[in-house]
Amino acid sequence: MTTVDPPVPPGLERPDLPRLPVRLPAPAPGWTERTDVVVVGSGIAGLTTALSLREAGLHVTVVTKVDIDDGSTRWAQGGIAAVLDPLDTPEAHAADTLVAGVGLCDAAAVQVLVREGPARVRDLIRLGAGFDRHDDGTLMLTREGGHHANRIVHAGGDATGAEVQRALHAAVRRDPWIRVIAHAMVVDLLTSREGRVCGVTVHVLGEGSPYGVGAVLARAVVLATGGMGQIFDATTNPAVSTGDGLALALRAGALITDVEFVQFHPTALAAGAGPGAGGAGARPAGQLPLVSEALRGEGAYLVDGEGKRFLLGQHELAELAPRDVVAKAIHRVMRAGGLDHVWLDARHLGTGFLRRRFPTIVGYCRAAGIEPGEQLIPVAPAAHYASGGVRADLHGRTSVPGLYACGEVACTGVHGANRLASNSLLEGLVFARRIAADLARRLPVGAEPDLDATPGAGSGREPAPGDEPKPAARAAALRRAMGAGAGVLRSAASLAGTAAVLREIGAAPPEPGTSGWELANLVTVASAVVGAAYARRETRGCHWREDWPDADDAWLGHLCGAIAPDGSLTQTWRPAPAAAT
Ligand SMILES: Cc1cc2nc3c(=O)[nH]c(=O)nc-3n(C[C@H](O)[C@H](O)[C@H](O)COP(=O)(O)OP(=O)(O)OC[C@H]3O[C@@H](n4cnc5c(N)ncnc54)[C@H](O)[C@@H]3O)c2cc1C
Known about the structure:
Bound molecules: flavin-adenine dinucleotide
Largest sheet: 6 strands, mixed
Mean pLDDT: 90
Distance between the termini: 32 Å
Radius of gyration: 23 Å
Low-confidence stretches: 277-282
Strand order of the largest sheet: 1-24-23-14-20-22
Number of helices: 13
Number of strands: 24
Shape: globular
Helix content: 25-40%
C-alpha cells in the first residue's frame, strides 16, 4: 500500500503496490576489501568521478556489473551540450533547459550545469576525447531539438558516447590506484550504526576476481548506475540498465524523486529481441537500436498497417512533431490495431542515398534482415531516458549520509519533467567533479565503520545456476506490463492493471543470484514509477495521462518516494520553488 503525506495537490490517489524488500537475500561476505570511495558504475558519471577523486589523492574502487563499457554511455549518439560558441550564452542554454523541464527544473542546478559545463567538456578534451572539428581545427557544434543555438559537440559523427567511454577508460587504465572490479553486481549498500553508508556488498561473477559475495568497505559510496530503461519491454538502454542504483538507494533509506518522468524515443528499430529481452518471445523487446529523427528529417514517413500516414493532420509538423507527440501517436495506432510496431517508409529515398547518409541505421536494418531502400522499417517507441532518480543536491549528496548519486541514476533537478537533448552526458561530467570536490573536503577520517548488521548473514546462499530461469520469465512479464500500462500513454486504469501484475510478481520473496536480485530491483523501481505516475494526475513533460490530458499548476512540485521499514512505498510532496517556473 502506498501512503502519501500531506500537503498534496487535490485529488491524489494511491495505487496498491507490492511490499518491497529492504535487503536482498545474500550469503555473508566471503572476502572484504577497503578503499576510500566505492564508485558503482563505469559510464561517464562513474569514471569521471573516479578520475576526479584520484586528483584529490583518494583511493577509489570502481565496481561494474559487466564490462567497463557496457552502460548507456557508449551508445550515446548525438553529443554533449555546452556553451562553446562565442555567440552562445549560459543564459540561453539555461532558458532552453528550463523550457524542456516544464516548470520542474531546479534553477540553481541548471545554473551549475550550464556554467560549469564548458570547462568540463574542455577537461574531457584534455583527457584525450577527440571531438569532430572543422578544417581550421575549431570544434564542430551542431543543434538538436529544443536548443536555440549550436552547442552540441560530437565525435565520429553519431558515435559520441563510444569516444567518450574510450577516452575515460584509457585514462582509468593509466592510473594504477583506481581498482576496477568488473563482472561484479553490487547487491546492497552497507550502513554503519550511525546511519552512514560505508560500503557495498558485491557479487563477483565468473570472469571477475575474487569470486562470490564480498564486501567493499569505504568512507563513502557514489552511485553511478545509469538508467532504468530495462523496466520496460522496449528500450534503447543496454541490458545493465535495470535501475539497480535506484533500488539500492531506496533500500538504504534514500529519497527518490520525479521518477514518473521517463522519456520515450518514438522510433526504435522493432525487429527481433535485443539484449535484455529475457524470454519475451517474438515481440520486439530488450535493447532496440535508435532510428534517429534525422531519417524523418530527410523525408521518411510513418505508416500504419494499411500503409496510411497517420501523423498527417495530427500535428503541423507531421512526422517531425516533438518526440513525445510522435511517440503518443504511434502508441495509439499500435494499440488500436493490436500491432507490435508501425512502419517507417524510407524507400523513396533510395538505397544509395540511405547507405551514404545513414550508414549506422542501414547497418542495424540489414543485421535484422531489412533492406531500407526496398522494405518498410518496423519501428516502435522505446524507453530512452530517466529524468528522475535518486534525489541529490548540488554536490551530489543524497538524503543518506555517505551516499552520493551521479549521472542518470541521480535527480539533481536539471531535467525537471523532461530532459533537453544532450544534457545528460553533460550532467554526468559536471556533477562527478562536484562530488569529488565535496568528498575531498568532507570525507570522514578515522576508525572502521561499526556496521549496523552483518551483511547478508543467514539470509541467503551462494547463487546456483538453477536459480536463473524463473526470475527471467517474471522479469519479462513485468516489462510487458510496464510497456502496456505505464509506458508512453498512461491512465488510472492502465496503471492499476500494471500495479496488479507487480503485486503478483512481487508477492514471491526475492531469490539469490543476479537475475533474482535484478528482478527484485526491477519490481522496486517499476513500483516506484507506477506509484508516482498514478499519483500525478496531469500531463506534463514526458508524463502523459490520457485521463488527465492537461498540465495543472496544482502539480508544480515533486513526488518523492521512499521505502518504509515494513517495505511499503511512501510518497511525500515537495512543491516547486516559484523561481523554477
Ligand atoms: C541509444 C542512446 C543514445 C543516447 N544519446 C545521448 C546523447 O546523444 N547525448 C546525451 O547527453 N545523452 C544520450 N543518451 C543518454 C546518456 O547516454 C546516458 O544518460 C548516460 O550515458 C548515462 O551515463 P551514466 O554514467 O550515468 O550511466 P551508464 O553509462 O549507463 O553506466 C552505468 C554503469 O553502472 C553499472 N551498474 C548498474 N547497476 C550496477 C550494479 N548493481 N552493480 C555494479 N554496477 C552496476 C553498469 O554496468 C554501467 O557500468 C543516450 C542514451 C542511449 C541509450
